[in-house]
Amino acid sequence: MLVLAALLPVLIFTFEIFRQKARLQHEAVERGMRDTVRALSLAVDREIGTVRAILETLAESPYLDTGDLRSFHEICRRALANRKESRLILFDRSGQQLINTARPFGTPLPNAFQDAAPAQTVETYPYLPFGGPDPVKKTMETGELAVSDLFVALDSRRPTIGINVPVVRNGKVLYALEMAFHPQVLTELLLEERLPADWIAALVDKKGVFIARTKAPERFVGRAGTAELLSQIAKSQEGWGTERTFEDIPVYHAFVKSNLTGWVTWVAVSQAVITGPINRSIAAWGIGAIILFLLGLTAATILGKRISTPIATLSPNRPPRYNAASRLSCALRESERSMSFGSALVSAGEAARLTAVEREGRLVEQRMRRLAEVGAALAESIDYEKTLNRLADLMVPDHADWCVIDLLQEDSNVCRRVAVRTGRKELEPFADEFLRNYAPDLGRQHPILKAIANRPIRLHPRG
Fold it and tell me: Which of 125, 243, 254, 264 is the most buried (most CB within 10 A)?
């Protein structure tokens, strides 16, 4: 009873800490997944916006005014030089393809309105319609951007996405210009975001069909989502919940619907990944509680005997063999030690709780202070050079030993260095030499210029 009385408050307190930790971790995962899915949705919308800009630029071509479709075919083909798996198609109001950059100019082309067919026409993709004429008709009728769901293309007989814009002259829609591309383009866009390996990201069109997926796209693109997922998507623009994937894996998932395309961006992570560490912590807590109880029971047994033996000697039914006062004094000392042991356990538990609260408070304060410093740096001046120098000060030495910021001058291939910071004073002579003698030079193919030109993240080993 003494052991339970001493350990039970500590164990209850520890379990409550685990429970609070589990709740906070669950909330952090939900918040992180919601932020991630919104960022992915914005990335997809940016890609669709880029496609729209290309189409609207081509729609203003003077070749369409003169009817020189051969020349228009050539500039469309050049516009797609860096966009693999894509093609440009020009439709007239009857749905007839006039040009298709995937075919030589003058090749007979299909009619999107006459040759289209419902789903089940292509056995490989039973959920997809054949031809996808609806977005072309919508663009012709409304004169607005139309984004298709996934369909099987008339020419390639492969899954395809189409983005359509009108070609308007004198207030009348003469043609619909479409960029059609394979959904693998969208899968690669999701993969570029470099999500954790145990996460899944996907895009679902307005009919509930997967049009991109980072895990096994060859198996699941073109398939309708699970009934549970489609039910949740139908209820709100964005959300968080649980479901089972096609692989029958229970997952937490978050989704958001785009106002531009009507597509749903979806991310999921296995529940085991989230709950596994917590379950292991609880198991360790249980084992530790058992060990503590057994140790406490052993100690209580030993101490109890040391207390009970001298007390028993004072019993009137037992002849005195030792000095009674000495035995009573010993018993009292042992009782005090037992009480001190229980009090120490309670004090240790309270100290652990206060330490955890204090540590959490420091972390929150540190994050808020860093956010405030960055926000203040961005808002304190409209002079971008001064702002960049302030940001360099915030980076060094808390996050890096060096920080160098270069800007590409307008209408030039020359970079100008606006900030150099070092974390240690002995590096300042090297920084000065670096500033004077190793500025980016186009003739040398400097990696900074490569990064500006190609926009990758480049890591260079320290020399």
Answer: 264
